[in-house]
Each structure stands twice: as C-alpha cells, then as structure tokens.
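Can't paste images in this forum, so I'm doing it all in text. The chain is below; anyone willing to post the predicted structure tokens underneath?
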Amino acid sequence: MTIAQQFLGKKGCKQQEEPLVPAEKVPTVKDAEEGRPVVVTMHAHVRRVSSLTTVCVFATALLVLTTGIIGGMYLYRHFAHYKVGKGANLRHFRGWCSIPYLPDIQGEPPRQAIALGLTHRTAATEASEMKTPKVNFFEEEVDIDIKFEQYERIEVPSFEHGRRAQFVHDFVANKTGIVDFENKRCFVMVLNRNFVFSPRVLYEQIAKMRAGYYDADTQTVRHTMQVITPPVIDLRNVGTFIARDCAQTPIYMLEKATSPIYKRSLDSESKNLFVEFAGNKVNEYKIININDATPGENPVEAS
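Text version of the structure:
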C-alpha cells in the first residue's frame, strides 16, 4: 500500500512568516543620562471596575446628598423660629421656656436677685442669702398663633408650687381658659391683657429671652378666684378655642373672690394653685372653692 504524503515544511513556513495579528509597537524612551533606550511595557489587561462597586458608590453619594438636604431643611426651620422683626413671616410657634419662680417674694424680680447674689458676695449678703428662699424654675410649653393672633396655649407641667394645667388665651372671645388635666375640668375667666401679652409680642419676647439680651419681669402676682356654679351650658360664651379644648369636661366660670375666708394648709394650697407666665409677671391663680367644681364629663356632650 502506497501512502502519499505532502511535505508542507517550506510552504507552511512561508504562510507563517506574516503574523495573523500585528504586534503592538512598543515605544522606546531614551535615557537622558546613559543614552540607552528604555523599554516601556504596556499591559494589555486593564482591570475593570465592577458594577457592584459602582452601585455602592452611587448609593453612598445619594445618601450623603439626602442627609444634607434634610439637615439643611431642619436647621432652616429651627433658626427661622427665632427671627424677630417684620420680615419674619411666621404663622405658628411652638417651644419651651424656663421661668424663674419665687412664690414668697413680691418685690424684686428673681432674675435680678440671682445676679446680685453672684456678683456681690460679701459677709452681709451671705447672711441675707440664708434668709432668702431658693429660686425655683418651672417649665412652659407655648403654642402661639403668630399670623392671625387669635390664641395662645401655655401648658405648665406639675411642679412643687403648682398643678399641671393648660392656659388657653382666646383673643377673639377675650377669655382665658384653664384646663385642669388632673381632675378633668375647665375654668374660664375674662382675659387680663395687663398680664397676658398678645401672640406676636409674646413670641418676640421669648425670642429675645432665648437670645440672651432681654430679662422678663417675673415678679409674682397672686389672684384669688372663686367658682361660679352650675357649669356652663352654652359653649358659645367661652370662645371657639376654649370650647374645643374643654369639649369633654365640665366648664365653670371664675370671678374674683370677694371674701376669701377659707383656711387651708400649705400642701392643699399648692394643689389648688395654677401658675403661668404669659409675658408680664408670673401669675398665680388660687381657686378657694375649687371643690365645688365637680370633675367628670361635660354635661352638654353627655346629653
């Protein structure tokens, strides 16, 4: 059997003389010192950034941007509350205040008494400090209608010399309501504008107090009141805002007491005391016949 073989030696070599893919031209850089060419190697493999890394970077940037926007909006709203002047177009303000309180002194304001005690500390003043009652503070949460100036809500938590209550000053109806949270009842009296500032004036005063360049008059003023029975039936006589906050409780009118002949202990007196600061002086309201006001549900709502 004859096997025919074809020798492709030379012909194959001729076909392989020209490369299938042209090789990259490697640039050469001559060394300035030795004059010899320096070979620069170019790597064909380029490392690609994974898609997961790209997504993580994008998500991080988006999170930082969102946090910055939210933080900026919060700071803007926070500092906008304390802008004072005609250019401040605020509609509503809500915040906290800390009020100095001296129930046994009706002379100099407590804030001035503290300053004198700190700056002029001599033997005489140290002796007088032993006789001076300790200055207390009570907190207030204020809710002020700045745009329309129709109402103020001042909530005072329970403290040593007063019970928890909310004062509602209705400037449309010219009434002041006291919401007794502990016994679920309300008291209403005529709005005293000598001690209760208007909403915008009260807001500006609070802003100045927080800025540190205004000292309010926190002298204590006592008001002795008495309850008028029976409870109010027609809620239109107490104003819209008071009627809204006292819708579920009985409402009693208050008047100035003509003959306070009630003897009570100090503990019971502090329990019947409502205290607030609404711009001018710290006002104490003592209701001598508070037990005549029956707590419970509003008879109008119950019927």
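The chain has a mean pLDDT of 76. The longest helix spans residues 51-80.
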